[in-house]
Amino acid sequence: MSRVGAVDCGTNSIRLLIADRVEERLVDVHREMRIVRLGQGVDATGQFAPEALDRTSAALVDYADLMRHHGVEKVRMVATSATRDAANREVFFAMTAQVLDAVVPGAVAEVISGSEEAALSFRGAVGELSPAAAPFVVVDLGGGSTEVVLGGSNGADVTASYSADIGCVRLTERCLHSDPPTPAEIAAAREVVRDGLEQAFRVVPVEKARTWIGVAGTMTTLSALAHKMPAYDSAAIHLSRVPFGELRGVCDGLIAMPRARRAGLGPMHEGRVDVIGGGAIIVEELAEALRRRAGIEELTVSEHDILDGIALSIAG
Questions:
Q1: Are the beta carbons of 64 and 100 closer than 8 angstroms?
Q2: Of residues 47, 43, 36, 45, the one with CA closest to residue 86
Q3: Torsion sign, CA atoms 253, 259, 261, 265
Q4: Largest pairwise CA distance in the chain
Q5: Which long-range contacts (CB under 8 A, 24 or more apart) does 102-109 make?
Q6: Could you report the per-residue pLDDT of 277-291, keeping only the tens digit for each?
Q7: Are 41 and 173 in contact (CB under 8 A)?
Q8: Cα(261)–Cα(254) distance, rounded to whole angstroms?
Q9: Could you tell me the strand order of the sheet in which 13-22 lies?
Q10: What is the pLDDT of residues 128-185, one digit of tens each?
Q11: How far is CA 253 from the centre of its chain?
């Protein structure tokens, strides 16, 4: 048995998983998420904002303390869309190297490609699913990018993948400026999403999929709202299913809803309030495309995703 620490640093959130590998599965020791909005303004400026780096550093220092406390033997930290795009990413790497070295000497953060991000997300998402439901299309909807991955029941069995430069933070900053967004802003956002998905579908033959798996915070929050949960319940959300009719109702409501009202929804994390409308637009466009192309009529939501894939990659 080995104890590992996995850190996923995305555009909107930074997450930690400390886990033990027992036989062929992971057993959670500690799992945590914080909204740090590392990608704040990156789409417009091409650089990390100093305050975003400060928020990320504070969270990572706390994560390092937790990993030392729990006796982590191996650590892997990956950074995704925002870090791929930022011109001043060397500042980020210097900060993360200093913090991680105190956990495991020599440990550093790494920027992974969109294809590796997709493969790790797929591995983490499908581990508990029945092979009878394959092929799977796994969609990891992040703050800066959306990964679309097609594959079989084995976590390493990826047929095709694509990382589209559409995410809830990027889309909100680019298109959704009003509160609530205007019809013109929503229409412009849908065009951006359709263009991004069309590029993805030229690479990933989603018409072969039988089951759609959605991962990451937008997807899980939508499921919690669709199931009318009074508060976010990770165990109840994991592997929950949402028929497309219910999914569209929740998405339409969030897109049209003022931010103050979104903030009052029980399962809503405060760090998602301003960007989940953009995420809902992406999910609606995905649902319509998968219904039309593959005949899929429901979304299955997994709480296991790239974070679990990262942990598995170093667990031996």
A1: yes
A2: 47
A3: positive
A4: 55
A5: 102/64, 102/68, 103/5, 103/64, 103/67, 103/68, 103/72, 103/75, 104/72, 104/73, 104/74, 104/75, 107/75, 107/76, 107/77, 108/77, 109/7, 109/9, 109/77, 109/78, 109/79
A6: 999 999 999 999 999
A7: yes
A8: 9
A9: 25-35, 13-22, 3-9, 74-79, 109-111
A10: 888 899 999 999 999 888 999 999 876 668 899 998 989 999 999 999 999 999 999 9
A11: 22
Distance CA 265, CA 14 (A): 22
Task: Write b or e for each residue in 181-213: b if 16 or more Cβ atoms lie within 10 A of its Cβ, otherwise e.
Answer: beeebbebbbebbeebbeebbeebebeebebbb
Residue 271 near residue 184, CB atoms below 8 Å: no
Residue type, 123: R
Whole-angstrom distance, CA of residue 87 vs CA of residue 48: 8
What is the spatial distance between Cα 232 and Cα 206, in angstroms, rounded to a whole number? 30
